[in-house]
Amino acid sequence: MTGIPNLLPMVEEETAPLEVAQIYAEIKQTLQIPFIPNGIKVAATSPLVLKAYWALYRDFSQQTSLPQSLVAMILYTIAERNHCQYCSATNELTCRTLGVDEETLRALVDDLEHVSPERLQAIIEFAVKAARDPKNLSAEDFDRVRRHGLSDAELVEIVFLAAIGNFNDTLADALKFPVESAVAQALGWR
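RE: above sequence
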């Protein structure tokens, strides 16, 4: 195991117990990625947490009616608002991989009023409010998104996704997940 200085170990693929190694293999196959992300390796310190986290992520991502690019943009915007470096980096790279353009990425961070089309802007603003100020979501907020053709099921999925965003940011910040060097390099960090 390698670790984050003075905090928690990361369960590396080469030394993972069988139960963890099996989940790692499923993660790599399902996500079609060549390595296990650091967040997963820290979560694997508790196989119970790893199993629960993976089940939540896998089940939601495989069954959501929301486009994957929208999911990534929502998670990226929430991570940016929560100042979570790990989740911001991971979700920014996912957005870029899914074809989200530079102008949209900048608007998600700097000025939601300039996100276009208007439908996307309404969805992102709704998701951010669900994540950051859920008690103040109003009928007007729901109606604004409904006017853009979203179903009630999609609205529930967006609120659930906002909660997942906060959940991810809490885990990453509390457990100090380091950004993977491959992610940093792909984003052009020095």
